[in-house]
Amino acid sequence: MPVRSPAVFPVIHYLDADTAFSEILVARTCGADGVFLISHGNSDVALLGVARLAIREHEGFPIGLNLLSMPCIQAARMAMDVGSTMVWADDMGVGSMGLTAEGKEMSALSRANPQLQLFASVAFKYRPHESDPVGAATKARTAGFVPTTSGSATGQAPDRTKIETMAAGGSLAIASGMTPENVHLYAPFLTHILVATGVARTEHHIDPAKLKALIGQVRPTEHS
After folding, report:
1. Rounded to whole angstroms, how far apart are CA atoms 94 and 77?
2. 161 phi and psi, to 5 degrees?
């Protein structure tokens, strides 16, 4: 179980370069620990260019990538090429049955690059059903990944018991359903919170008040 407050990473849905740059600044100003950039519009090449510039501008502020159009190993290598040290993939080749060939390759990449954090979706929305979420999380950690789970759909929080049991072995990230109102119920079991809908003003814009409120719930002693 985490011994410190979980890191909060707003997920910025890519629209264009100017919006991405401004939203990264909003997240940083609000006290986020970093951000993830993701494109749902098949704009991963453009996103990589934006990430390269943003990483240079925000040295020391982690900027991760989820490159939906690419296999995870290609995405990880391209993310590293632009200077990112965080990669999240919907399919990193890991589940309760173990690692696929791609998962083994990603695990080797993790061992060779200890500065790289790989967020592997397990028991995740819109993915094939995972009968053993705890086992999947354990396999992910053993491979060197941060197991990253979700509720059943975008914006829906997972069952709290699921999170508590999955977190028993160590690191665990959540990537759906967190809001300023419910995050305190989950934060004690998490090491990372990836949040979009719960702190959004629009699909592409953070609501600063919501993000500050969520961070305040995650780190109450830091604001006392």
Report:
1. 18
2. -65, -40
